[in-house]
């Protein structure tokens, strides 16, 4: 995966599989590319599932941030790229989640990014609906009315790079790649 998130995927017997495939068929690189692409797509799906189950984030946001660059005939490398900026805190679970026009909010905001957490009360935060329609969780930088700063939660890159998620995704990719290579080998050997 790119985007500051290196993961080493170890494929058992890749060199041996390539040698056997080369001796059996000229389509060996194509078959290995298919196997790598299947493993990368499985890894992407696993990452999206882990993120949406562990965090209060839209599945569409996760899908947009995680892309796959597919392997080709001459290039036996499929890349899972995770790129995102920190998400606005309003994209997660917040309470209150709506600010009526003209009503002053005084109780602060409670925010939860992770499903397993109890949330955090932001006593000095308040909600603002911008002209663009975006709802933001805002705090004042000082005691004056301005400047204001919008609060953000973790980025999707950070969610994927959490140790438990990264290990699970890496294991899923390794299993899928090894299974796809074995399937390609057996298909080429006529079994």
Can you characterise this structure?
- By secondary structure, the protein is of the alpha+beta class.
- It has two domains: 14-85 and 155-188, no CATH class; 89-150, no CATH class.
- 40% of the residues lie in helices and 16% in strands.
- It has five helices and eight strands; from the N terminus they run H-H-H-E-E-E-E-E-E-E-E-H-H.
- The strands form three sheets. The protein has a three-stranded antiparallel sheet with strand order 3-4-5, with no helix packed on it.
- Strand 4 (109-112) and strand 5 (120-122) form a beta hairpin.
- Helix 2 (28-54) runs antiparallel to helix 5 (163-188).
- It is elongated, with a radius of gyration of 23 Å.
Write a brief structural summary:
This protein is of the alpha+beta class and 191 residues long. Helix content is 40%, strand content 16%. Helix 2 runs antiparallel to helix 5 (163-188).
Q: Which parts are unreliable, with pLDDT below 50 for 5 consecutive residues or more?
A: none
Tally the beta strands: 8
Distance between the termini: 33 Å
Rounded to the nearest angstrom, the radius of gyration is 23 Å
What structural class is derived from the secondary structure elements? alpha+beta
Taken in chain order, the helices and strands follow as HHHEEEEEEEEHH
Reported for the largest beta sheet, the result is:
3 strands, antiparallel
Arithmetic mean of pLDDT: 84
Estimate percent helicity. Answer: 40-55%
- The number of domains is 2
The portion of residues forming beta strands comes to 15-25%
Overall geometric form: elongated
Tally of DSSP helical segments: 5
Strand order of the largest sheet: 3-4-5
